[in-house]
Design goal:
By secondary structure, this protein is mostly helical. The chain is built from 27 helices and no strands. The chain has helices at 2-9, 17-26, 29-36, 43-52, 55-63, 69-75, 81-94, 104-118, 123-133, 141-148, 153-162, 168-176, 181-188, 195-204, 207-215, 223-233, 240-245, 251-257, 263-270, 277-292, 301-314, 320-328, 332-342, 347-355, 359-368, 373-383, 404-413. The longest helix has 16 residues, at 277-292. The chain is globular. The termini are far apart. Residues 1-11 and 295-299 have low confidence and may be disordered.
Length: 418
C-alpha cells in the first residue's frame, strides 16, 4: 500500500507524439485505455481510439473533457449504453465552458452531439442529459423543447421545472396539450412562476399539480385563480393544508376555506396576523361547529360510493363532469361505481380493468359508459396512475384512439359483450 501511495504521488509521465503512436501500434489494450483517459492526449489519437478502441477506451474518452468534438459526435452513436451515458454527463458540463473562439465546426459538432443524445432510444441517457442541462441558458432552444415534451417523466420533469429557456407562452402551450400527469406538477414547482401559468395549471384542476402550485411560495396566483381552486377545494382534501399555508390569502378567501377544512387547520388560519374582526369571529364560529359535529358511524367506502352514484344517476347528474370531478378528487370507489353503472358492467369487472394497469381496456370501458375521451385519459393518469408511454392519448386531441371493433375486443376479453 505504501508503494501504491508513492506511485500516486509521482507526476504523470509526459508522452511525446512518438510515445502515443507507439502505444497505438503495440495494440496493448491497457496502455490504450490509460491513453484514452489522458487530458494531454493528441486529439487525433483520441479520435482514433473512439473509432477503434476497446469498450473501456471508448468509455474513458466519453468521460474525457479533452476529447475533440468529432470524437464526441462519433460516441453519441456508440452501441454501448454506458458510453452514451458518460458522454451525456460530460457534454452538459462542457457547454457553459465552450470557448468563445471555438471554431464553427466545433460548435456544430457539439450541437449535433447534444441533439443525438436528446433523441437517444434509452430514457436513461436522455434523462442524464436533461439533468445536466436543465438550468443552462446556453442550450439550443429546440433541444430544450424536445426534452420538455418527452413522454418519460425522468427526462421531461427536470427541464419543465428548471429550464430558463421556457417562456410562459411555452409553458401554457405544454399545459394545454399535456398527455402525462407529471407535466403539470413539474411546471407547478418552477421558481418563480408567473400568474398566467398558475392560472393555466389551476384551470386543469389536476390534483397533484394544484397542490404543488399552492405549496410553491414563489408562484404568483391571482385572486380569481385562487377563488377557482377554493371553489373545488372542499372536495379535495389534498389541497386543504397547502391552501391554509398560503401567505397571500385575502380575508374573504380565509373565511371560505374555513368553511370546509378541519378544526386543526382552522386553528392555523386563526393564528395568522392581520385578521380583521369579522374574519376572527367567523373562524371562532367554525371551530365551535367542527367540535360540535356528530361523529358518523363508519360506512364501507364502496357501499357509500354506490349510494352516491345511484343518487346522482336518479337526478340525471351522473355525467362527464361528475365523473371527471370524482377522478380529479381521487374518489376511486366513486369512479368504479360510476363506470359500472354507466357501462352496465359488474363492479368487480370494472375494478379488474382499473387494476390491470393496461390503458386500452380502460379506454374502451369509458367509451362503453358513453363518457368522453378526456375522462378516459384522466382515468388512466389519475386513477390507474399510468405513466409516459403507458398512457393512451386522444386522437386529434379529442377522439377515442381505438376503433369500435378494437374496443369491443378489449371489453370482451374481460367478459363484457354486447
Amino acid at each position: 500500500m505504501a508503494l501504491d501511495r508513492r506511485k500516486n504521488d509521482i507526476a504523470p509521465v509526459v508522452l511525446s507524439q512518438a510515445d502515443m503512436l507507439r502505444i497505438l501500434e503495440e495494440r496493448d489494450n491497457a496502455a490504450r485505455e490509460d491513453l484514452a483517459a489522458r487530458d494531454d492526449a493528441a486529439p487525433e489519437v483520441l479520435f482514433f481510439l473512439a473509432t477503434e478502441g476497446s469498450l473501456k477506451a471508448r468509455r474513458a474518452i466519453a468521460r474525457n473533457a479533452a476529447a475533440p468534438a468529432h470524437a464526441n459526435r462519433l460516441l453519441a452513436d456508440d452501441s454501448d449504453e454506458e458510453v452514451r451515458a458518460d458522454l451525456a454527463r460530460k457534454i452538459g458540463r462542457l457547454l457553459p465552458d465552450l470557448p468563445e473562439d471555438a471554431s464553427e465546426k466545433m460548435r456544430v459538432l457539439t450541437i449535433e452531439t447534444l441533439e443525438r443524445l436528446a433523441q437517444d432510444q434509452l430514457p436513461r441517457v436522455r434523462a442524464i442529459l436533461a439533468e445536466e442541462i436543465k438550468a443552462l441558458d446556453c442550450v439550443p432552444k429546440k433541444i430544450v423543447d424536445m426534452l420538455a415534451r418527452d413522454i418519460e417523466e425522468e427526462v421531461a420533469a427536470p427541464i419543465l421545472e428548471y429550464s430558463p429557456l421556457l417562456s410562459d407562452a411555452d409553458l401554457i402551450e405544454i399545459i394545454t396539450t399535456a398527455q402525462a400527469h407529471f407535466t403539470l406538477k413539474a411546471i407547478a414547482q418552477r421558481k418563480p412562476l408567473g400568474a398566467n401559468v398558475s392560472a393555466a395549471i389551476a384551470e386543469a384542476l389536476d390534483v397533484p399539480a394544484v397542490a404543488a402550485l399552492l405549496v410553491n411560495s414563489s408562484a404568483q396566483i391571482r385572486e380569481q385563480t385562487l377563488e377557482k381552486i377554493i371553489e373545488h377545494g372542499a372536495r379535495i382534501t389534498a389541497w386543504h393544508l397547502p391552501l391554509v399555508m398560503r401567505n397571500d390569502l385575502s380575508q374573504r378567501a380565509i373565511r371560505r376555506i374555513a368553511g370546509f377544512v378541519s378544526a386543526a387547520l382552522i386553528d392555523k388560519l386563526a393564528g395568522r396576523n392581520g385578521l380583521d374582526q369579522k374574519t376572527r369571529s367567523e373562524l371562532a364560529k367554525r371551530v365551535r361547529l367542527r367540535i360540535d359535529e356528530p361523529v358518523e358511524e363508519a360506512r364501507d367506502p364502496g357501499e357509500q360510493a354506490s349510494a352516491d352514484v345511484a343518487l346522482l344517476h336518479r337526478e340525471g347528474r351522473l355525467d362527464d363532469a361528475a365523473v371527471e370531478r370524482a377522478v380529479e378528487s381521487g374518489k376511486r370507489e366513486f369512479v368504479i361505481a360510476a363506470l359500472a353503472l354507466l357501462a352496465r358492467a359488474p363492479a368487480d369487472t370494472v375494478r379488474r380493468i382499473v387494476q390491470s394497469g393496461t390503458a386500452k381496456p380502460a379506454v374502451a370501458l369509458v367509451w362503453r359508459a358513453r363518457l368522453s375521451m378526456r375522462v378516459a385519459f384522466k382515468v388512466q393518469s389519475l386513477v390507474m396512475r399510468l405513466k409516459g408511454g403507458e398512457l393512451l392519448p386522444a386522437r386529434d386531441g379529442v377522439d377515442f384512439p381505438l376503433s369500435e371493433d378494437e374496443m369491443r375486443w378489449h371489453l370482451a376479453y374481460f367478459g363484457l359483450e354486447g
